[in-house]
Amino acid sequence: MKYSPERKEAILKKMLPPHNKSVPEIAEEEGISQQTLYIWRKQARAEGRLLPDGDSTPEGWTNRDKFAAVLETAAMNEAELAEYCRQRGLYPEQIKAWRRACEQANDWEEAHARQTKEEVRALRQKQKELERENRRKEKALAEAAALLVLKKKCPRSGGKTRTHDNDRRTFGRVRADR
Description:
Blueprint: H1 5-15, H2 23-30, H3 34-46, H4 63-73, H5 78-88, H6 92-153, H7 164-177
């Protein structure tokens, strides 16, 4: 069903402060599907309009809406800011707090980058320690293998060692016996 632009605009105004009605409330009052209202709200937001999520408090505003409010009020003086806040059911302190949060967003990224750098440094140090331990264990394993080889080469009972020549003779005798 096609709705007139005037009706659509009137319904969108119900989503704005001071009413701040939720989409389900408006859908029930107006007899319009919630999906249609969500689409209208999304389109209005895409055009840059502020439409909170329907909570009557500023906490009901999305981060995108808060950021848009900060941008809209950035160049306003105190009187203009007060008028803007009255129209939207806000307090100037809330806009200031949102502005501080936006300004600190980049600080958070720097802190996160610093933390990541420290984690990488710790991982590299751990890797070096593990490589050092691995080398030590490889040396110990090579030493143990060398000792085993030397033990096998030790003369057996009577001091005689078995050689390949002895093995061939034994093999030849066994063959001749067959």
